[in-house]
Amino acid sequence: MSDSGRATVRRRIASGWRASVAGNALALSLGLAFGLALLEWGLRLAGFPARSLHSVSAEEYEAVPGLWSPGQDFVNRDNPALPYRIHINALGLRGPETTLEPTRPRVLFIGDSFTFGDFVDDDETLPAQVQQRLGYRAEVLNGGVGGTTIVDQIAFLERLLVLRPSLVVLVFFENDLNDLFVDLAMHEQFARNRALKSGVLRPLFWLIRDTAMFNAFLEARASLRARTETPADRETGEGEGPGFYSDAWVSMRAARYAEEAAALRDRLERQSVSLLIAGFPHPFSVRESDPDRGMPIPDQIGAVARALEAYSIPLVNLRPILKTSGRSLRKLYLFPYDGHASRLGYSIASEALAPHVLAELDGSHTAARLPGA
User: Fold this and answer.
1) Is 43 within 8 Å of 218 (Cβ atoms)?
2) Among 344, 347, 286, 354, which residue's Cα sits nearest to residue 320?
C-alpha cells in the first residue's frame, strides 16, 4: 500500500473514532438530561418546590439596601399545605414598591420569620397589617429575615438605615435567645452564600436555583445538620423549643439580648431614630405548656422585658392580647401544618401594636408631619 493509501486509512480511522466518541458523548448527554428531567419531575410530584426565595447576589448587595433579590413575585410552596405569595420590591424588601427617599414618616420592622411573615400573603404579615391600621399616617416597611436574631438584625439594619426610618420596630420571638449562641451567625451565613453564588459557580447557581433538585438538596443538607447537632440537655438548656430552657438559662440569654438592644438603641439615637421592641409569643407560650413534654413554658418575653428595664427600654408584650383573644391556637397559628402565626394572629397583634407605633412616632416629633395628625 502506498503512503497516500495508508494516510487515507488513518484519516478514516481517526474520523470514525471521533464520530464514535461524539456519538457516545451525545448519547450520554441525552441520557443524563433525560434522567435529570425525570428526577426533577419526580421530586415535584413528591412535593418539593421548584421555586424558593433568593437572597441578593454580591452585585445586588451593592445596589439595594434589602437582603432579597429584587423583582421576585411568586407563590412559595415550601409547605404544600400553606402556599403564600411573596413580592420583593426594587429595594430588596418584601411588600409593595416604594421609593428610596421617604415621602412620609417611615416605620421599619426588623425581626425573623414572624416579621417577614412565613406562610401568609404579603398583605397578611404583621408589618402589612400595622400599615393597614396606620393608613397614610406613616409608611411601614418589612425588613424581616427568617432564622435571624438581634445580632443579625443589627447587621442588616446598618444597610437599611439608608431608607431613613423615623422608627425601627424590633420584633422579638422566643427562639431569638437560642439563636444568639449559634456557631455561625445568620448574617455571616448570608455573606458566605453571596460569595459562593457570585463566584465561579454563579452560572451553575442561576441554572439550578429554581429547580426541585436544588431545593431537595438544601432540605437534605438542613436535615443532616439537624441530625448532627448536640442532643438537647435540659440542665444546660440546649435544644429546640422553649420547653427545654431553664429559668437561669433564659435569664442569662435575656441579659445578652438586652445588651445588644441597648447598643442598638444608642446607635439609632445618634441618627435621631426611635426604637420600639415588641415580643411575639411562641404558640406554646400562649398555651403556657409544651404538649409534647408536659412541661411549663418559661416566660421568655417577660425575662427579656425585665432585662431591658435595666436600660430603660420598654417592651410591648403581645402575648396577653393573643392569650385573651378567645381564639384557639389553631386560629391564631397555622396548626397543624406549622407553628407560625396566621393572618388572624397577626391581625390581633397589629391591633395592639399600632397604637404604640403611633405613640413612638409622636414622641419622636414626627406626628406633626403626619397628614391628618
Assistant:
1) no
2) 286
> Cα–Cα distances in Å, from 26 out to 16, 32, 39, 299?
15, 10, 20, 64
pTM: predicted TM-score of the whole model, two decimal places: 0.82
Residue recorded with cell 456519538: 23
Cell numbers for 274: 426611635
Pairing of strands 167-173, 106-110: parallel
Tens digit of each residue's pLDDT (9 = 90 or more) over 174-197:
999 999 988 889 999 999 888 887
Q: Would you put residue 63 in left (φ > 0), alpha (ψ -120 to 50) or beta?
A: alpha
* Distance from C-alpha of 140 to C-alpha of 136, rounded to nearest angstrom: 10
Which residues make Cβ contacts (< 8 Å) with residue 170, sequence separation at least 6? 110, 111, 150, 153, 261, 264, 275, 276, 277, 278
Give residue-wise pLDDT tens across range 326-350.
Answer: 999 999 999 999 999 999 999 999 9
Residues 130, 188: contact at Cβ < 8 Å?
Answer: no
Type and span of the H or E element at 35: helix 3-45
Name the range with the highest mean pLDDT among 27-31, 78-82, 106-110, 179-183.
106-110
| Euclidean distance between CA atoms 286 and 341, whole angstroms | 12
